Amino acid sequence: MKLYITGTPLGNLDDMTYRAIDTLRNVDVILCEDTRTTRKLTTHFDIDTPLRAYHDFNKGKVEDGIIEEMHEGRTFALVTDAGMPVISDPGFELVARMQDAGLAYSIIPSGSAFTLALVASGIPSYEFTYFGFLPKTNAKRKKKLQEIMAHERTSVLYESPHKIKDTLAVIADIDGHRTVSISREITKKFEQHVRRPADEMLQMLGSEISLKGEFVLVIEGAESEAVEFDIPVMEHVEALIKEGMTPKQAIKKVADVRGLKKQDVYDEFHETKK
């Protein structure tokens, strides 16, 4: 009676591990998000273990039965459509219930798209926050992105191909000079990783960067306000101009992060230039 939380390839089937194949062959049941997707994987590796659907829409109904079967001695593997189960996918509830019931489980590891994108980003990864998927409604998405852009740590999130332009547009509007990295089709034939300032990245979408495949966005953390406040307002403006911002952009940025009126910063800046 055991559950094996089993990682599968993100896209390249050659990344499947011997241990994962052996596990899927020897358990009694494979729990999967979409039986059609997992069937392609099991067929490729000649695995004939029965598949059973376990996803966000039925997990509440099937978990009691799974726990009962485990008490009877059956073994299960939990897989996702690609990558490591539980990460932005169903499963943590089942793990919690197994802990409460004193049932055993093991991890059969694989990569997750967000960790691989972070590795490929060239953006500091000593401290980072994984945000998963953004909210669906535009208002909530914008509010969440404003929160992320104010975050001082590196941020990682998933985005769909039909929303990536809108998301980059919001990011560029908040801070067009912020470094972002886009990774798409990770481990697949047309794998791509691009690191640019947000406003430049926005212009590349649809041309140099194809709007196909799932996207992972890595966003550089915001500058620490505590450090920025150690210098006078005008020195702060001049420092941003030296980094490549226009005076208008620098004035707006300084006003935003310091909680000042943009007109006041504008007036002071132009007074110093007389």
Keywords:
Methyltransferase, Cobalt-precorrin-4 Transmethylase, Domain 2, 274 residues, alpha/beta, 5-stranded parallel sheet
Cα(first) to Cα(last) distance is 79 Å
Helix fraction, binned, reads: 40-55%
Rounded to an integer in angstroms, the radius of gyration calculated over CA atoms is: 24 Å
Global mean pLDDT: 92
Secondary-structure map:
Blueprint: E1 2-6, H1 18-26, E2 29-32, H2 35-44, E3 51-53, H3 59-71, E4 75-78, H4 92-101, E5 104-108, H5 113-121, E6 128-133, H6 138-149, E7 154-159, H7 164-175, E8 179-184, E9 192-197, H8 198-204, E10 215-219, H9 225-228, H10 233-242, H11 247-258, H12 262-272
Parallel strand pairs: 1-4, 1-5, 2-3, 2-4, 6-7
Antiparallel strand pairs: 7-10, 8-9, 8-10
Provide structural commentary:
It is a single chain. The longest helix has 13 residues, at 59-71. The protein contains twelve helices and ten strands. The chain is elongated, with a radius of gyration of 24 Å. With 274 residues, it is an alpha/beta fold. The protein starts with a strand and ends with a helix. Strand 2 (29-32), helix 2 and strand 3 form a beta-alpha-beta unit. Helix 7 runs antiparallel to helix 8 and helix 10 (233-242) packs across helix 11. The strands form two sheets. Strands 3-2-4-1-5 form a five-stranded parallel beta sheet, with helices on both faces. Strands 6-7-10-8-9 form a five-stranded mixed beta sheet, sandwiched between helices. The chain has three domains: 2-108, 3-Layer(aba) Sandwich (Cobalt-precorrin-4 Transmethylase, domain 1), CATH 3.40.1010.10; 113-219, Methyltransferase, Cobalt-precorrin-4 Transmethylase, Domain 2 (2-Layer Sandwich), CATH 3.30.950; 225-272, no CATH class. The protein has helices at residues 18-26, 35-44, 59-71, 92-101, 113-121, 138-149, 164-175, 198-204, 225-228, 233-242, 247-258, 262-272, and strands at residues 2-6, 29-32, 51-53, 75-78, 104-108, 128-133, 154-159, 179-184, 192-197, 215-219. The mean pLDDT is 92.
